[in-house]
Amino acid sequence: MLTNRPPSQVIAREAVAAMAARDRLPRRRRMPDIRLLIGAGILAIVLAVIAIPAIATLFTLKAAGDDLKAGATRLEGKGLALTTPDTQAADADFLRAEQRFLKAEAGLRTDWAFALLSLLPAGKRQVDAAIILTHIGTRIGRAGHEGVRIADTLIAAKVVGPGARRNPGDTALAVLDAVTPRLEPLIAELAAADAERVRLPGSGLVWPLPSAVAAIDSRLGGVVPALQNLRVIEPSLRELLGANGPRNYLILQLDSAEIRPTGGFIGSFGLIGFDHGKMRPYESHAVEALDFDAKAKPVLGQAGGPRYVAPPTPFQLLINSDSWELRDANWSPDFPTSARQAEFFFNLEKRQPVSVQGVLSIDPTVIADILTVTGPIYVPETKQTVTSQNFFYDTLVDVHTGVGKSVISYAAKAIMDRLGHLGPSGLLHLLAVVQRDCESRSIQAYFDDPTAQVMVDRYHCGGQIQPLKSDGVFVVDTNMGASKDDYWVARRFSVSLQVRPDGSVRHTLRLHYDGSKLVPNGNLTLPYRDWLRVYLPAGAHVVGVEGIGGHGLRPQTVTDLGRTVVQGWMEFGFQGSSDVKLVYDVNAEADSRHQLDFFWQKQAGRQGDPITVSLQLPPGWSLTQTRVNGAPLQGSTIRSDLAVDRQLSFSYQPPP
Question: pTM for this one?
Fold first, then answer.
């Protein structure tokens, strides 16, 4: 049929029809291009050839880490039961680990897969990190060899293994003898591993590198500093353990529920001694056994007697005409001063030919913390089981209700006996407890020999009144009411620091004492009586004092231990409260650094009293930085506590 349609439309219609007809025809299957298959196969083979050595290298790296872990587990897991076969197996583990790390490093440097991967920046980061890990692993493996040599020496000395000795002092000296000759190579290997660890990226690593880094951190963390510290204090330890002859130490067992300047009333005391490492049995006694005779009379007599020692003036209200004795020896808040006073009284009052070469003090917190290491301990004399949870309160109740201070002595003796049987892991836990309690001043120590004192000062166990960089305060309470009220009396302190344009600072110190939770002392409801001393910077100018005074004494401003001190009586009735306000000025620092350093020293025996420190600057001045114990904070008001000493720093800028 003829149409009048244009030729272009006819052509288009026929093309569409042809395409539709083609689609209705059955399709033929396309044959793959054989050349593509061959190429893909060759590529897969090449990748496999490259990847297989790379995968083998990664597994070698992991196996080396497993060997290190196995060797360390063999040495640590057996504890005191470690034997020579154990050390031989551990040595084989460390040697195998070292060889595998060296092999892994060679693979990382020569395998094509890692060479190709290193062409990419992200890939090179992974390869470089893996190489560093092999260096660290090799160093740790070599350190493991040194550890095995030390363990073999300890087995030979019967410190560990069959027939191991159990005297802790003897054991400690044997450990020093074993460790000291190998300390330098051990520190060298681990310090080198530590230096390599610093080069590792902090993030962005892929399997298996992150787990390897975590394992290294868990093993290396703090080990090198600990070994370096051991190198420094090794002569101190030998002196303390009597390596140079017999040494005896007086242990003051303080009752912080009756606060005294260095932490608490000396309710009981103990004696511990070492002779070439051998520890004599620990003796513990109530202080009455030394201070009073069989007729309950003071052994040093009374005023006018030949042995009488005049007490500090405030004590005369408490002990009348009796002599000053050991129980009240810790009058100075500077522990070395009080320790020397305690030595003096012990040597004056003692009934046995024992001289002491040092003094340590511990409070109930220390014993509670040690019980976390030893576990519960049964005290046969009192038929009680003491734990870290019940020790403080239960012994406080016993003393408070008149059962007697000897309960603390009995418990201390039982705990010391248990400490003599601690294994290596228990000793490490104990050392951590001691370090923490030194920082909180629950443990303080003073030794006559300067060599021994090096260790005390290094671990901040000296309990000295601390020197000030520029400004600071130290509040010292002395419970003079012969009560255990400080367990219940809460404290809250604050100070406002008003900086003047000339750089001098006006201080307003407020001390709040809350006795609302006090309980009767036996059947008595006595007032809380405190001889309060506030240690200020030398040369501080006292403007005003409120809340201090009594017994016919006005507040006094004196000098003690190189500091200006405001002191006097502070009292409040049963379940009452008291507020003290002290206003004083401190002159500007000579160097004009536009920084105020304020050091608030904690009194031993107190646990975390809250403090607030606020800074006020002149108009137009700006605060640029605030720090507490080195940590940056925001704002001009700091709320903290006195669980430990607090060093506060404020940096500010006057207007241009």
Answer: 0.79
